[in-house]
Design brief:
single chain, about 70 residues, 2 helices
Length: about 70
């Protein structure tokens, strides 16, 4: 039983040392990550979230194209 605990501790120690030794890859370094993100806004009439480029801005905030004539 003591050997099993010793083996598990040795494997854990090797794993921790390898995690520290290997360089970490930053999440923002992935190619194309920034291009995939598009900011969203909430329609003040129905509450739906939509791409900011598709939303219409009025006096009270953003709204959907379908609500644009109602606002």
């Amino acid at each position: 039983m003591a050997r099993l605990i010793l083996i598990i501790c040795a494997i854990g120690l090797v794993w921790l040392l390898l995690r520290r030794a290997l360089p970490r890859r930053e999440a923002d370094d992935r190619p194309g990550k920034r291009e995939q993100y598009t900011p969203t806004v909430r329609c003040h009439i129905c509450g739906a979230y939509l791409d900011r480029r598709l939303a219409r801005r009025d006096q009270t905030g953003y709204c959907c194209q379908s609500h644009d004539d109602h606002a």
